[in-house]
Specification:
By secondary structure, the protein is of the alpha/beta class. The chain has a single domain (3-185), classed as 3-Layer(aba) Sandwich (Rossmann fold), CATH 3.40.50.360. The chain is 42% helix and 17% strand. The chain contains seven helices and five strands, in the order E-H-E-H-H-E-H-E-H-E-H-H. A five-stranded parallel beta sheet has the order 2-1-3-4-5, sandwiched between helices. The longest helix is centred in the C-terminal third of the chain and has 26 residues, at 160-185. The chain is globular. The mean pLDDT is 95.
Length: 186
């Protein structure tokens, strides 16, 4: 079975984007698409890194575990809020920490906001950072506007049929990219 790492990027108190990470995990597992694990940056509580992992003389065990989870995942979903048109420092911190782990890794992006645009302003800057590391960003996106109205704290959508229909397309594109990557590696 394939494995999907879901990065929940916000570390703020009262964060709302984590609702979407919970939703994706449940959706993936209920539909038996893959195994899914949330890598919650709030729980990791990483310091600001002053060097890439491969140049750190004595990396912390949790840093090594995080890097291994990204490396061994078949694909990654990043769930990020939009803060002032950008993504949170916690996410930039772990993106820049790794290098080889991102190379040709299929990465799907879900953006979240309380507003009507669903965090779409963050897509360009996040995608550019991932491209620079040679990650394979999936063309499908999953923006979530008005997140407080559309998903509860447990990640249950107000309109499950509509959320699931969008997720089927989004996750389907990620799975296609994972399969294509495997075929190209042969």
């Amino acid at each position: 079975m394939k494995t999907i790492a879901i990065i929940s990027a916000s570390v703020r108190r009262g964060r709302n984007s984590h609702r979407i990470a919970l939703y994706f995990r449940r959706y993936i597992e209920e539909n038996k698409i893959a195994s899914a694990e949330i890598l919650d940056l709030k729980e990791y509580n990483f310091p600001l890194f002053d060097e890439r992992l491969r140049h750190q003389p004595d990396p912390a065990p949790e840093v090594l575990r995080f890097a291994e989870k990204i490396r061994s995942a078949d694909g990654v979903i990043i769930v990020t809020p939009e803060y002032n048109g950008g993504y949170p420092a916690s996410l930039k911190n772990v993106i820049d920490l790794l290098l080889d782990q991102w190379r040709r890794k299929p990465v799907a992006i879900s953006t979240v906001s309380d507003g009507i645009f669903g965090g779409t302003q963050v897509i360009t800057s996040l995608q550019f950072s991932l491209w620079k590391l040679r990650a394979w960003t999936v063309p499908a996106m999953y923006p979530v506007p008005s997140v407080i109205k559309t998903f509860d704290e447990a990640g249950m959508p107000a309109d499950r049929a509509a959320a699931d229909k969008r997720a089927a397309s989004f996750i389907g594109e990620l799975m296609w990219c994972i399969e294509a990557r495997e075929r190209m590696a042969q």
